[in-house]
Amino acid sequence: MKYYKFEKNKIIMNILSKKILIxxxxxxxxNISFSYSQSENEKINNLIEKKRSFNKQNKNxxxxxxxxxxxxxxxxxxxxxxxxxSFPEYRTDIIYKSPEWKTQVGNFExxxxxxxxxxxIKEKFSGAIVLEDKI
Length: 135
Hints:
Largest sheet: 4 strands, antiparallel
Number of domains: 2
Strand order of the largest sheet: 2-3-1-4
CATH class of the largest domain: Alpha Beta
Oligomer: single chain
CATH topology of the largest domain: Alpha-Beta Plaits
Strand content: 15-25%
Radius of gyration: 36 Å
Number of strands: 4
Distance between the termini: 91 Å
Protein name: Sporulation related domain-containing protein
């Protein structure tokens, strides 16, 4: 009978030690998982902060232009000269994008600023349009 009690206690101790080992192993895995997720969150937060900083330094990646003409080279230069005599305060560019020449006005930072100039320019150059351009 003593032998039976001893074996029973040994089995119970064996089961308890296995449960303790399994519990300790699970706690170890949870701790690794938790610290991994914390380091990943820190990395994500660092990336978000870098993106914000980049956006602040490069906030003018989109500009707006008013296109007056799209066609032949000679006509593009005529339109530019006519525009410059009427509106000397605006910068004009002649751009060639195969197969056409374009006469464009300004590098406006906001759509609102471009629309305000457009309303004035449209009175004299009825074919003008506002374009969004990436720089």
